[in-house]
């Protein structure tokens, strides 16, 4: 058994990306990653977090927990928090609790979305294999139970069509 040889983790030189399409793609992927990390930080620690960035095309993107406005007001010393004033500490604590639970729900939904994307990629690969070979030539060892049931259904349909075809050929004398 041969050992898999990889290049390992390499240090990436920090320099500006020249290609505009690559630059936009990289920005999009990194923006989603940093937003997710900021949301996790706010959820896990209760910290007030704000992230503001502009794409290479000049489009602004912002994330704030509990909100971008409250974090910037607090940073600038103009704190007009929803949790102060006439509302009282109980309302503020309830609001913060609700915000935290919504942040956790967003994280769970993002995880489900990632899982569904992975399933979609797997299904796409399976379909590519089916298109190349034909559905009847798929390796059954790699299929899940729902896929096997679908394959069985297709075989039954094919059998019925062949029986019908044989019956029609006998009737016509072929």
UniProtKB/TrEMBL annotation:
Provide a Gene Ontology MF annotation, just one.
DNA-binding transcription factor activity, RNA polymerase II-specific
Q: Which organism is it from?
A: Turnera subulata
Annotated compartments: Nucleus
The lineage is: Eukaryota, Viridiplantae, Streptophyta, Embryophyta, Tracheophyta
Query: Which residues, by range, are in coiled-coil regions?
Result: 92-133
User: Which superkingdom does the taxonomy of this entry point to?
Assistant: Eukaryota
Alphabetical list of Gene3D superfamilies matching this protein: 6.10.140.920, Transcription factor, MADS-box
Look up keyword Transcription regulation and say if it applies. Answer: yes
Official protein name in the record: MADS-box domain-containing protein
GO CC, alphabetical? nucleus
Q: Name one Pfam family in it.
A: SRF-TF
Domain MADS-box stretches: 7-67
UniProt keywords (A-Z) are: Coiled coil, DNA-binding, Nucleus, Transcription, Transcription regulation
PROSITE patterns hit by this protein: MADS_BOX_2 (PS50066)
């Amino acid at each position: 058994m041969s050992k898999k040889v990889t290049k390992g983790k390499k240090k990436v030189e920090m320099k500006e990306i020249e290609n505009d399409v690559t630059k936009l793609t990289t920005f999009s992927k990194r923006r989603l990653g940093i937003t997710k990390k900021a949301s996790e930080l706010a959820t896990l620690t209760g910290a007030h977090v704000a992230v503001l960035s502009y794409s290479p095309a000049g489009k602004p993107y912002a994330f704030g927990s509990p909100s971008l406005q409250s974090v910037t007001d607090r940073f600038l010393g103009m704190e007009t928090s929803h949790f102060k004033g006439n509302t009282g500490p109980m309302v503020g604590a309830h609001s913060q609790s609700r915000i935290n639970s919504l942040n956790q729900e967003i994280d769970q939904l993002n995880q489900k979305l990632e899982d569904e994307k992975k399933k979609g990629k797997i299904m796409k690969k399976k379909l590519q294999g089916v298109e190349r070979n034909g559905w009847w030539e798929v390796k059954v060892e790699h299929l899940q139970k729902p896929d096997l049931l679908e394959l069985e259904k297709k075989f039954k349909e094919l059998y019925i069509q062949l029986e019908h075809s044989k019956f029609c050929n006998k009737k016509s004398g072929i």
